[in-house]
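For reproducibility, we list the full input for the iron/sulfur cluster complex.
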Amino acid sequence: MEKKIILGGHKIIKGMEVGQETWDNLPNRNRKFISNKVNLDLSHRCPLECLRCARQTYESDGKGGLKKKPIPGRDITIDEFEKITDYFARIQFCGQYSDPIHHPHFIDFLRIIKRKDLISQVHTASSFKSDKWFKEAFEANPDSQWWFGIDGLPKDSHKYRVHQNGELHFKRLKMARQILNKKPIWQYIVFNYNEQDLETAMKMAEEIDVIFNVINSGRWENKKPDKLAPKKKKGIEVNEFEEQN
Ligand code: SF4
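The corresponding predicted structure, in tokenized form, follows.
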């Protein structure tokens, strides 16, 4: 019996009997499947000790971590990265246990993404690289979208992002705006020490012409009291300000 399946407007008949035109238009025929995205934790490396990071349940320098066991993981190799980028069209670098910029070959990875014409997003909170390094990274692939974690006014961000130099990170955000083709994003998680500064921070973002992204963390909901929780447990909506202005 003839079996008809409609796939994206193309007919596939009798199971494996597929017309040439349909075959040519299938998204995956032993070659890269380009419709999906992957998020990578590139390594086990991060110099920060953000207070509620998963890393804090492993080792630390003793300023807040529990010193249970070493951070798990290793650096992804260049060969592995080549393989991953043959199969995924969107690469997101949003580490849960690492900051991507501390992978020893991170700039090479950006060049690979550029060469393969893929889409990428970089999430970083670490200020522990030089201006020269950031410039080289931005120029390696100006089409990447960069997210800078600065939780509060730059002078206060280290209150959560322990060891971060927030003012230096803000300077890199401005530099990114000058070099990248996509507007970089200032990501701001609302905490008790920064909730009153949202409006000032939004104006700062506007002045340097970057996107401002407020994150109302879900970690306060149905949890025991946390000294970092904002007074408004669910955080603050940006449009609260828009309505006032
Ligand atoms: S920058 Fe990211 S990986 Fe590093 S400590 Fe902070 S949350 Fe964890």
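The chain has seven helices and eight strands. The domain at 32-244 is CATH 3.20.20.70 (TIM Barrel). Both points were considered when choosing residues for closer inspection.
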